[in-house]
Specification:
Blueprint (H helix, E strand, L loop, with lengths): L14 H37 L12 H33 L8 H21 L16 H20 L8 H20 L7 H35 L6 H14 L15 H13 L1 H15 L10 H23 L2 H7 L3 H31 L6 H33 L6 H45 L1
C-alpha cells in the first residue's frame, strides 16, 4: 500500500511551527468564540419565540424574522468561518512542517472578517437584509469577506510551497479544496442575476454547499489529522481517502435542488440533485470506514482525550447526517419532511453535531500547544462535552420525530393548520430545553478559554 498521505504525521520539533501560528490562530479562535456566544443568545431568543411568540415582542430588532437571521449569520460567518480559518492555518503549517509564512496577514483577515460580521448582524437586526437564507447580509458588506479571504489563500499557498516534505497528506487535500471552493461559491451566490425560481434554486444550492464544500472539508481534514495523531497509527486506507475526497468534490456541488421537490423547478435539475445526494453515500461510507478502522482497538482513548471525544462524536454525526440527507432527498420522503422541523433538525445535525463538535475538538488540541499551557480544568471539559452532546441529541431527536409527524399532518387536507401548529408546541419547548443545555455548555467552554488565556499571559510575563 502506498504510504503517501496515509501515515500519521511523524514526530518533529513543533515549537517554531506553533509559535508562528500563536497570534493569528488565537485571535481568530477568540473572535469565533465571541460570535458563538452572541449567536447562542440569538438562538435562544428565536427558539423561545417559536412557542412563546410574544416573548420580547415589543422590540422590532428582536422580532423572529430578524433575530433568527442574525443568529444564522453570527454562527455561520462568525463562529464557524473564523474557527475554520484558524484551524486551516494551524493545520497547513503543521502538515507542511514549517512555520506559517506571512501569518501576520491573518490578523488583517480577522479584523476585516469581524467587521463584516458585525456590520452584517447590525444591518439584519435593523431590518436591512436580503431575502435569501444564509445570504441575508446586504451588499456591499460581503466584499469585506472576500478581501479578508485573500490573505488566507496567500498564506496557505506560500506555506505549502515551502513545505519540508513532498508527500501530501489526506488532510491537505480537504484544506486546499475548501480554500478555493468557498470564495467561488460565495461570489456566484451574490451575483445580481437571480430572480424568482432561479433565486430559490441558487439559495438551496449555496446553503448546501457552504456546509458541504467549506465546513465539511475542514471538519474532515481535522478528523483525518487528529484521529491518527492521537491514536498513533496510520490512517487505515489511502485509497479510501482518495475515493472519499474526489467523490465529495464530484457529487456534493450538485446538491440543494432536491429541497424544491414539488416546486416549479425543471425536473432534470431536481433529478440531478437527488441522484447526486444519493451518490454521496460513496464518500460518506469511505470516510466512515476509514475513521472506524483507524480507531479500531483504540476506543478506550475516548475516556482520556477530550479532542478525540469531540472529534469522534463529530465524525459519527457526519456519517449519520449524510446518510439521512441521502434518504430525505428521495421524492417520496421529501414530500413529507420538507417545510417541517425535520429539516431544521437535519441542518443542526450537520452544522452542530458534526462541524461544531469537531471544531471544539480541534480547539482543545490546538490552543494549549500554541499558548504552551494546559487547560485549567478537566472536569470543565467533561461538562462541556456532555452538556453539548446531550443538548444537540435532544434537539435533533425531538425535531426529527416532531417534524416527521408535522409533515404527515400537513399532507392531510382534513387537518387544520392551527391544530398542527398546536401539536408542535411540546417539540418546540423541548427544543428550547436543548438550547439551554447547549448554551450552558458554551458558557463553560468560554470560561475555560478565558482561564487558559490568563494562564498563558501569566506564563508569558513570568
Amino acid at each position: 500500500m502506498p504510504q503517501t498521505g496515509t501515515a500519521a504525521p511523524t514526530e518533529y520539533d513543533t515549537t517554531e511551527v506553533d509559535r508562528s501560528t500563536r497570534w493569528p490562530v488565537t485571535v481568530l479562535y477568540m473572535s469565533a468564540l465571541f460570535w458563538l456566544l452572541v449567536g447562542t443568545v440569538f438562538a435562544l431568543i428565536a427558539s423561545i419565540k417559536m412557542h412563546m411568540p410574544d416573548f420580547l415582542g415589543d422590540y422590532a430588532f428582536l422580532t423572529f424574522g430578524r433575530i433568527r437571521s442574525a443568529h444564522l449569520n453570527a454562527v455561520i460567518y462568525g463562529w464557524s468561518s473564523l474557527g475554520t480559518i484558524a484551524t486551516l492555518a494551524w493545520l497547513v503549517a503543521r502538515l507542511a512542517r514549517v512555520p506559517l509564512r506571512g501569518g501576520i496577514a491573518l490578523l488583517a483577515t480577522a479584523a476585516l472578517w469581524n467587521l463584516g460580521v458585525l456590520l452584517g448582524v447590525v444591518q439584519i437586526m435593523a431590518g436591512n437584509m436580503r431575502g435569501s437564507e444564509w445570504l441575508e447580509i446586504p451588499t456591499p458588506i460581503p466584499v469585506l469577506f472576500l478581501a479578508a479571504f485573500v490573505p488566507v489563500i496567500w498564506v496557505s499557498l506560500k506555506t505549502f510551497a515551502q513545505r519540508k516534505i513532498q508527500s501530501t497528506y489526506v488532510s491537505q487535500w480537504y484544506l486546499f479544496g475548501a480554500t478555493f471552493w468557498f470564495p467561488a461559491i460565495y461570489v456566484v451566490a451574490y451575483l445580481p442575476v437571480y430572480q424568482g425560481v432561479p433565486q430559490a434554486a441558487m439559495n438551496w444550492w449555496f446553503a448546501h454547499n457552504v456546509l458541504g464544500i467549506w465546513f465539511t472539508p475542514i471538519g474532515l481534514a481535522s478528523a483525518y489529522y487528529f484521529i491518527p495523531k492521537i491514536v498513533g497509527r496510520p490512517i487505515y486506507s489511502y485509497y479510501l481517502s482518495l475515493l472519499g475526497f474526489w467523490a465529495l468534490a464530484l457529487f456534493y456541488n450538485w446538491n440543494g435542488s432536491h429541497h424544491l421537490v414539488g416546486g416549479p423547478v425543471p425536473t432534470w435539475l431536481m433529478t440531478a440533485s437527488i441522484t447526486a445526494s444519493v451518490m454521496m453515500v460513496i464518500p460518506v461510507a469511505a470516510v466512515a470506514i476509514n475513521h472506524h478502522m483507524t480507531m479500531k482497538g483504540h476506543f478506550s482513548l475516548l475516556k482520556t482525550s477530550p479532542t478525540l471525544r469531540f472529534i469522534v462524536f463529530g465524525a459519527m454525526s457526519y456519517t449519520g447526517v449524510s446518510l439521512q440527507g441521502s434518504m430525505q432527498a428521495l421524492r417520496n420522503v421529501a414530500q413529507i419532511t420538507h417545510f417541517t422541523h425535520h429539516t431544521v433538525a437535519h441542518s443542526h445535525m450537520g452544522m452542530y453535531a458534526f462541524f461544531t463538535m469537531t471544531l471544539f475538538g480541534a480547539m482543545y488540541y490546538i490552543l494549549p500547544r500554541i499558548l504552551r499551557v494546559e487547560w485549567p480544568s478537566a472536569p470543565a471539559i467533561r461538562w462541556h462535552f456532555w452538556l453539548t452532546a446531550l443538548g444537540i441529541g435532544i434537539y435533533v431527536v425531538g425535531l426529527t420525530i416532531g417534524g416527521f409527524f408535522q409533515g404527515l399532518a400537513l399532507n392531510d387536507p382534513a387537518r387544520s393548520f392551527q391544530s398542527i401548529t398546536d401539536e408542535m408546541i411540546p417539540y418546540l419547548e423541548l427544543r428550547s430545553v436543548a438550547g439551554v443545555l447547549i448554551a450552558i455548555g458554551h458558557v463553560v467552554f468560554a470560561i475555560s478559554c478565558v482561564r487558559l488565556l490568563k494562564r498563558a499571559r501569566e506564563g508569558l510575563f513570568s
